[in-house]
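stage 2 :: seqdesign
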């Protein structure tokens, strides 16, 4: 019997990939000339190693991007549904953010002192997300790292708990996985010396009995989670999961950190705002300053009071938090513009309506091709998963990944004018995305699924 992946014969996947690689090479002579052998001066030929995680035979060099479109140096205009893996969720260079950046750029970029924009941002964050105390970091990774440190200090406990399959940036203590029911350091970590399982517990998402058991020792400072697991294939919470998670953490004296870096796709106040979640600590990175590196993290009065008490016993000096360029004037100017003028209810209404159109179009294509796949949507974020669903936890999500199949589809979509995220099958709809771009993506996906399944074979 022929080998199959995600319901598709692997020979067809390989044939599609080979055909699409040839098309890509033929159509990108300029990118090939500049990046075909790698970019000189960079390790592995790219400024950041994950730039090689795309399915193209060599990196696609970008000329410019605006709104929901991206132009490469060979002159191809792509409908961009990757949007910088959420960094540009609200479109490339939203005019209000671009103007604020240009204006601030003439007034100094970083001072280590607050600005008028900082005063405005503090109030905007309070109003939008309902938490009273905020700090600004340079990235969501940093915000999570600092917030975990605070959670430990505030509770006097050493451990944290993560859900299997999570990703919260390159935060050491979250790199723990469940393998055959045992917690282990995430495979693939470079230069790892500490056993991360000493201070990190890991249970499956949606597994309330396991969560309750893990919290019962009352040694966990903080549960850190996304409201929906987005960094494996998307895993939605079971009905009642978040209510129970909040009850269990409160009963155990454990803080709850909700990382909304991706799920801010849900609405203007994120998933928490939409579904009434009550985190003790809230983290939001990537798109919050329109694509300028920045993140925010906020916490309750109680966390603030406990933190004050913990700090009172410490000598002055390094807290283990902070980087020099955090909260610089440029990022605060961009963040203010983004919060005030870009992340608006009207923008979200547009994003959500088109995302629903996209999800329905993909579902129709999957049904027509009789593929055992499913589609998940969280606000403006849509994902197709090459396996039956819904998925309930990280282990199921990992098993649902179909690397070569997904890569062939990504490249075929690119050759049809649509860019989607490389790491999983994520598509984001921005305020600038047009219905015609969604239609283009649905048509391309329909064509590809047909080719992968039709009787006479692919391409
Ligand atoms: C949920 C979540 N939190 C945090 C991060 C880290 O963001 P950054 O890489 O910008 O630090 C990511 C990155 O993908 C993420 O998905």
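stage 2 :: out
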């Amino acid at each position: 019997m022929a080998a199959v992946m995600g319901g598709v014969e692997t020979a067809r996947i390989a044939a599609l990939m080979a055909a699409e690689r040839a098309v890509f090479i033929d159509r990108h002579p300029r990118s090939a000339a500049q990046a075909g052998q790698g970019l000189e001066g960079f390790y592995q030929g790219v400024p950041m190693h994950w730039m090689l995680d795309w399915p193209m035979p060599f990196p696609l060099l970008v000329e410019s991007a605006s709104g929901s479109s991206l132009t490469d140096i060979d002159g191809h205009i792509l409908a961009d549904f990757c949007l910088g893996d959420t960094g540009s969720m609200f479109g490339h260079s939203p005019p209000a953010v671009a103007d604020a950046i240009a204006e601030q750029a003439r007034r100094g970029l970083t001072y280590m002192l607050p600005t008028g924009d900082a005063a405005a941002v503090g109030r905007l964050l309070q109003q939008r997300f309902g938490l009273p105390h905020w700090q600004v970091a340079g990235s969501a990774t940093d915000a999570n790292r600092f917030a975990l440190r605070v959670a430990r200090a505030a509770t006097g406990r050493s451990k944290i708990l993560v859900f299997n399959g999570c990703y919260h940036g390159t935060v050491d203590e979250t790199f723990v996985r469940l393998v055959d029911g045992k917690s282990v350091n995430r495979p693939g970590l470079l230069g790892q010396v500490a056993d991360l399982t000493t201070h990190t517990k890991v249970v499956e998402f949606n597994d309330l009995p396991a969560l309750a058991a893990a919290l019962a020792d009352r040694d966990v400072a903080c549960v850190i989670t996304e409201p929906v697991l987005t960094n494996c294939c998307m895993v939605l919470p079971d009905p009642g999961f978040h209510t129970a998670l909040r009850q269990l953490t409160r009963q155990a004296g454990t803080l709850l950190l909700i990382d909304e870096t991706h799920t801010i796709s849900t609405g203007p106040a994120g998933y928490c705002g939409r579904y009434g979640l009550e985190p003790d600590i809230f983290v939001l990175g990537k798109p919050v300053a329109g694509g300028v590196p920045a993140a925010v993290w906020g916490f309750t009065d109680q966390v603030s009071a406990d933190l004050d008490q913990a700090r009172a016993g410490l000598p002055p000096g390094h807290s283990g938090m902070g980087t020099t360029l955090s909260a610089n004037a440029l990022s605060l100017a961009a963040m203010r513009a983004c919060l005030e003028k870009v992340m608006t209810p009207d923008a979200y209404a547009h994003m959500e309506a088109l995302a629903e159109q996209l999800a329905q179009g993909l579902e129709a294509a999957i049904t027509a091709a009789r593929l055992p796949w499913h589609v998940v949507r969280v606000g403006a974020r849509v994902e197709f998963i090459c396996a039956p669903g819904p998925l309930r936890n990280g282990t199921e999500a990992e098993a649902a990944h179909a690397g070569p199949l997904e890569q062939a589809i990504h490249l075929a979509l690119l050759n049809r004018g649509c860019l989607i995220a490389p790491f999983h099958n994520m598509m984001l709809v921005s305020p600038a995305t047009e219905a015609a771009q969604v239609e283009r993506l649905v048509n391309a996906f329909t064509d590809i699924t047909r080719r992968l399944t039709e009787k006479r074979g692919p391409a």
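stage 3 :: structure notes
- The longest strand covers residues 220-225.
- The mean pLDDT is 96.
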